[in-house]
Specification:
Layout: H1 10-17, H2 21-29, H3 36-48, H4 55-61, E1 67-72, H5 78-93, E2 97-102, H6 107-119, E3 124-128, H7 135-150, E4 155-158, E5 169-174, H8 176-189, E6 195-200, H9 208-224, E7 233-235, H10 240-252, E8 259-262, H11 265-277, E9 287-289, E10 306-308, H12 311-323, E11 330-333, E12 336-338
Parallel strand pairs: 1-2, 1-3, 3-4, 4-5, 5-11, 6-7, 6-8, 8-9
Antiparallel strand pairs: 10-12
Length: 350
């Protein structure tokens, strides 16, 4: 392995090609006309010497890295994976590489990743999933949006609302609250009057995704003139284990409920396991609904009724708009419920 002192430099390439270092730099940047024969000699020299571009130096020079950064909470999340698929497909179509960065749900880490990608001069930095509502976080992210814009890059909010009217961002949302409203309305129309919701925010940890889903849940109750029980709105994370533990807490409370609306399909899978442990059948004893429509939701027994999010389209649209800014920079994609076998009217007397 070459040490720092042994690595091939632009000067080595220039000597091999018989041109100046400035000419090599112009070939690499592609921002200045160079004769085709000269360009061919430089590229051959780079290949022969196995020259590797210094990305930091390129960033300092002001050149684009031809890279799109994709920033998400958890790379193992099924819905995130399909957004990532859409991002990667569109990035490839646009001639860009795709870098995936995870934050593990830590807003401070997310800010640090955005700053690092700004320094690397990524063409776009795409943030996926709910954003923090903390004032300091919003102020700092707004600063980065302006800094990226000034550098010729773009901050993209994918699946989360805008930071503000005058903040230079690309926003690709889906009707998050509307999806929760539609699913809760479906449960209410089936006759359920005691519906638990698993997946709200814990105190002091507000996120845009959870807040919108709870709003849709509450608004549907208001539209039907049915009071909701705040004690049936249970704070959890968005994973299977969160749903399992949340459902066990709900059962242990002895609360009366005939349906559970899980804030994600993974939460719903955990709820299903906890209900089975407690001897409660789905949907005979308890109806169960999810959110996301991940691929294996249809393969559960019973098939999970859920809210469909166009995940791959979210990813593709985020990249396309960020790299083609003559297009409208704020779009909202639709959601809809997918009815399967996990919801039925409550038994008489429930």
């Amino acid at each position: 392995m070459l040490t720092d002192d042994e690595r091939v430099t632009i000067r080595d390439v220039a000597a091999r090609a018989g041109v100046s270092a400035t000419t090599v730099s112009r070939v690499i940047k592609g921002d200045y006309p160079v004769a085709q024969a000269t360009r061919t000699r430089v590229l051959r020299a780079m290949r022969d010497l196995d020259y590797v571009l210094n990305v930091h130096a390129r960033a300092l020079s002001g050149a684009s890295t031809k890279m799109v950064a994709f920033v998400l909470d958890d790379v193992t999340g099924p819905s995130f994976a399909y957004v990532a698929k859409g991002v990667e497909q569109q990035a490839t179509a646009e001639g860009r590489l795709c870098m995936v960065c995870t934050t593990h749900g830590d807003p401070a880490r997310e800010l640090a990743v955005v700053e690092a990608m700004r320094e690397q001069r990524a063409d776009a930095v795409i943030l996926v999933g709910g954003g923090s509502l903390d004032d300091a976080y919003v102020e700092r992210m707004t600063h980065f949006a302006h800094a990226l814009d000034k550098a010729g890059s773009r901050l993209v909010l994918c699946g989360r609302p805008p930071l503000g009217r005058d903040v230079p961002t690309t926003v690709v949302e889906y009707d998050n609250e509307g999806g929760a409203y539609a699913m809760t309305s479906h449960l209410l129309s089936q006759g359920h009057r005691h519906i638990a919701m698993l997946g709200s925010d814990a105190p002091g940890h507000a996120s845009t995704t959870k807040l919108d889903r709870v709003r849709g849940f509450v608004r549907a109750h208001e539209s039907f003139g049915v009071p909701y029980d705040p004690d049936l709105i249970i704070p959890t994370g968005f994973g299977r284990a969160d749903g399992y533990e949340g459902a066990r807490r709900l059962i242990a409370l002895g609360a009366e409920f005939t349906a559970v609306f899980a804030a994600t399909d993974m939460v719903a899978i955990g709820v299903l396991a906890a209900l089975r442990e407690a001897g409660r059948r789905v949907p005979d004893d308890v109806s169960l609904a999810g959110y996301d429509d991940i691929p294996f939701a249809a393969d559960l027994e019973p098939g999970l009724t859920t809210v469909h999010i166009p995940t791959e389209e979210l990813g593709r649209t985020a990249v396309r708009l960020a790299l083609n800014r003559e297009e409208r920079q704020h779009v909202v994609l639709g959601t809809h419920i997918v009815v399967r076998n996990s919801v039925r009217p409550p038994l008489r007397g429930q």
